[in-house]
Amino acid sequence: MSSQYNQMHEKLVKNGKDFVGMIAYSIYKSEKREAIRNGVDIAEFTKLKSQPNEIKKYKVEAESLANIFLQAAADVKLKAVQSQLAEQINKLTVDSLPKEPAYKGFLRWHTSGVAGVVGNFWTAVLVAIFVWMFADQASWDKAKSNAVDAASSALSKIQTPSTASTPALPVGH
Hints:
By secondary structure, the protein is mainly alpha-helical.
């Protein structure tokens, strides 16, 4: 080999799959190019950088850069997995919702007690409108009076709880 060949590549890169070693060699080459630009004696530079502590420094720096790269790649993968998991949870949630058509919900409501009360109210309104439209004034007044009397009678039958019948609690409780 030539006396100018410094074997730095062999000191930093173990084989073709040694990516950390390749990164370390790239760091070395960047420093060497900067030294050449600054007019540093290359023989002295190579002798200095071939020392074991410098070789170790390149490897440590390369491992740090590789770890940063791997962490960034892992973060990207983790975000993708989290996104996929969130989509699956949403799909499971949507899939677990009842698939009943809206009209069945309406029919269920319609057959419940609430619908009966609402239906009775609208029936009474329609009857009142027909009586008002087709009856003479005297018949309307009589129907209105009977409705008011019936409502008053129903309200008077509703008993409110008496406060006097409620036993008082002892003071200490």
